Amino acid sequence: MSQPLEYALITGPEEIVAERGAESVVEQVRAVEPEAEVVKLYAASYQSGELLVHASPSLFGGWTIIVVHDMDEADDALVEDLLAYLDQPADGVTLVVRHKSGNRGKKVLDTLKKNGARVIEAKAVKTERDKVDFVKHEFREARRKILDEAVGALVQSVGKDVRELAGACAQLIRDVEGTIEAEDVHTYYGERVETTGFKVAEAALAGDERTAMGLLRHAMLGGLDPVPIVAVLAMQLRQVGKVASAGRGSSAQVARDLSLAPWQVDQARRVAQGWDGERLGRAIQAVARADVDVKGGLRTEATVRSPEFAVERAVLEVCRARNG
Question: I want to staple 8 with a disulfide (CB 3.0 to 4.6 A). Which of 44, 59, 118, 128 is the partner?
Fold first, then answer.
């Protein structure tokens, strides 16, 4: 029988990816030692000598997996105990160290790597392109196909939180047969605030006043807060402006330069065909005024306008700017 893994190092701030990395190490060890016990240590509550106590051989034998969380926040006691352990490792122990970022405990990290630790990267998922890559990876791992339009729809619908995005991927993988299409995403997540905001913005930037106002008023009657509508409008207008001024490079190149996904560049280019700089500027100013109003900012008008009125006015002004 092969020997279980001795060391693992999980680096990076993305919590769900780091959690999965730790779980994969536990599964790898338990494939060889099914009864392996997991001990979790946290930098914030660590007591000097605690690591060495848990690493001591048990009278009953067995394997122990020690997971050290938040190494980047470690005090001197934890750093010293880890270095002491790495200098004289115990039999029957797998040491897993999680480190989000920074130079704290660098000597520990270097020693782990030198000793052949399995390194798992938990890079931050921040930009739209990061989220698109994350979704595609989820479906590749599950050996399922998802169309690019569906990836975009999913990121737009639930892309604020990576953990929620991962859950949405898991639900679609579990519940939908065959290739995942955009319609599948809309079936499950089409009534979410983010999705409604994108639909309103898409219609407004296309100059489709009737559709945009119908969607907006329906959402308002359903209790939708105007703030996310304005936020999505502003984001979409900024993307159009950025992409329009980025030149004629390939979608992939422009996406890399602007930290967008290629499908977003293609979408923004299609929208930009109906705009020029002056009208885009007017639309951005209208949305900026609405942003102040819906957040209760300073008013310069004699009559105090409601947030609902402010977002309706902004959507109308975007439509009319688009149509000249």
Answer: 118
